[in-house]
Write a structure and sequence with these properties.
Strand order of the largest sheet of chain B: 7-6-5-4-3-2-1-8-9
Low-confidence stretches of chain A: none
Mean pLDDT of chain B: 96
Number of helices of chain A: 3
Strand content of chain B: 5-15%
Structural class of chain B: alpha/beta
Radius of gyration of chain A: 13 Å
Number of helices of chain B: 13
Largest interface: A-B, 20 and 25 residues
Order of helices and strands of chain B: EHEHEHEHHEHEHHEEEHHHHH
Largest sheet of chain A: 3 strands, antiparallel
Distance between the termini of chain B: 40 Å
Number of strands of chain A: 5
Strand content of chain A: 15-25%
Mean pLDDT of chain A: 93
Strand order of the largest sheet of chain A: 2-3-4
Helix content of chain A: 40-55%
Oligomer: heterodimer
Distance between the termini of chain A: 15 Å
Structural class of chain A: alpha+beta
């Protein structure tokens, strides 16, 4: 699946970020799934606010981490589309 | 070996259920209403579970909606930070009660499916009018917006309805469907002649699921539990004994899996007497099959032992008479050939008469 810069990733109802106090990391809680997040996944999810487009998210992450745009866009697209395919994130246009 | 905290807890709030499915996973000896944990004990158990590291709470039964305090229990579970999933047949849920569950913070609903039409579903569930009611409940679930998983249980008598079940999940707007071919534990053991799918059916189901996964990628997630009597490798039962999750029975007994009481000689603790953390880390039953010290050959020297953990302990008990044996489903088990022979015999049964679960 390809993501276009104007699509807006959304965390749908029934999915939420949760700090796991026992294991000391962030997890994404979803139906029948608990996905532990590495710092990259966490950084991407923190940008998803239901209004910001995929393009705006990658630009913001490039600035924040001072990293090349195509690398960030690639990482982000893989992460987001993986979760969209598993019905954990949704895309709006 | 170090034990990690559990991720999931199945709270069997009650064994009471208006349905009487012939494959019910509850034990043959059901807990009576008087033996059920009171509200305040469940609330305390949820808090203990969250402190222990549990993230996902599955409220199950029996039919959890048979508990009058269900809304209160959901609110308490959410207040403890648990992701709260209701596993239900839909019977006992009104639009108003679903609204209350929504306000209480219920995260997700898993709706069981006994068949894709009233004739099949009501016969298998042993409850007339159950299917129509379920369809009504599904509509309310959609209206409120709860994320939904449809849970279709399949066997020889309704396997042909699998494509219809997938279509139904799409129409209901479900994000997920669990396609589970009956596992033979509990009440299902009394119905192997009437429920065992044929090897051809098992293969066809696998193909239908494979095709649907491709066709519906990004639209519907399909989890599949294959017919293990017809498989060559055992299921990764419970994600490993005492490794990922725990079950609390209606009377407070804590089990490594819902069928664990079929293993004779294990001692189980109760949340009425012992803190949940002590039960998880120090309980005899939980430590009995952790790691691989208990394994025999062919498991002990097998590369797959860290993947499938030797399969299902309860099935080893039921079919090989030894809970530490290799699950007879495994092609390496000395009992494997005999099991496949018996599976074919069960599947060839012509009598579709069912022995229904008796109510608690």
């Amino acid at each position: 699946m390809s993501l276009s810069p104007d699509q807006i990733p959304v965390i749908p109802r029934g999915v939420r970020l949760h700090f796991d106090k026992v294991r000391q990391f962030w997890v994404l809680l979803a139906p029948e799934r608990a996905i532990s997040l590495d710092p990259i996944g966490q950084a991407i999810l923190e940008q998803i606010d239901g209004t910001r487009s995929f393009g705006a998210i990658t630009t913001a992450l490039c600035q924040k981490y001072d990293a090349p745009e195509d690398q960030i866009a690639g990482d982000c697209a893989r992460f987001v589309s993986g979760l969209v395919n598993r019905r954990i994130l949704e895309l709006r246009t | 070996m170090t034990t990690s905290p559990p991720y999931a807890m199945l709270a069997e709030l009650t064994h009471r259920c208006p349905l009487s499915c012939p494959y019910c996973s509850n034990p043959l000896e059901l807990a009576r209403k008087e033996a059920e944990l009171p509200t305040e004990t469940w609330v305390d158990v949820f808090a203990q579970a969250a402190d222990l590291g549990v993230l996902q709470l599955h409220l199950s039964g029996g039919e959890p909606a048979s508990r009058r305090d269900l809304v209160e229990l959901v609110a308490a579970a959410r207040a403890s930070g648990l992701y709260t999933n209701l596993i239900t047949s839909g019977i006992g849920l009104s639009e108003r009660r679903l609204g209350e569950l929504d306000e209480a913070g219920l995260d997700h609903v898993q709706l069981s499916l006994q068949g894709t039409d009233a004739a099949m579903a009501d016969r298998i569930g042993g409850y007339r009018g159950g299917f129509d009611r379920k369809m009504q409940v599904a509509e309310w679930i959609g209206k409120i917006g709860f994320p939904l998983t449809l849970n279709a249980v399949l066997h020889r008598q309704n396997m042909h309805q699998l494509p219809g079940a997938i279509d139904m999940a799409l129409k209901m707007g479900a994000r997920r469907i669990e396609v589970a071919i009956v596992q033979f534990h509990g009440w299902a053991m009394q119905n192997r002649d009437a429920l065992m799918p044929t090897a051809e059916q098992a293969q066809e189901a696998q193909q239908i699921v494979k095709d649907a996964r491709t066709r519906l990628k990004g639209q519907l997630v399909i989890d599949f539990v294959p017919a293990d009597y017809h498989s060559d490798f055992p299921k990764r039962c419970m994600g490993g004994w005492g490794r990922m999750g725990l079950n609390v029975a209606p009377d407070g007994v804590v089990l490594p899996c819902h069928a664990a009481q079929t293993i004779t000689g294990l001692r189980f603790d109760n949340v009425r007497d012992t803190p949940l953390g002590d039960i998880w880390y120090k309980g005899d039953a939980f430590n009995a099959y952790r790691g691989d010290d208990w394994m025999q050959e062919p498991c002990r020297s097998c590369d797959m032992k860290t993947q499938d953990f030797g399969g299902c302990r309860c099935q080893a008990m039921a079919l090989a008479g030894d809970p530490a044996a290799t699950d007879p489903v495994c092609i390496k088990s000395p009992h494997h050939a005999k099991l496949q022979e018996r599976a074919a015999e069960f599947a060839a049964g012509t009598d579709d008469n069912l022995t229904f679960r008796v109510s608690a």
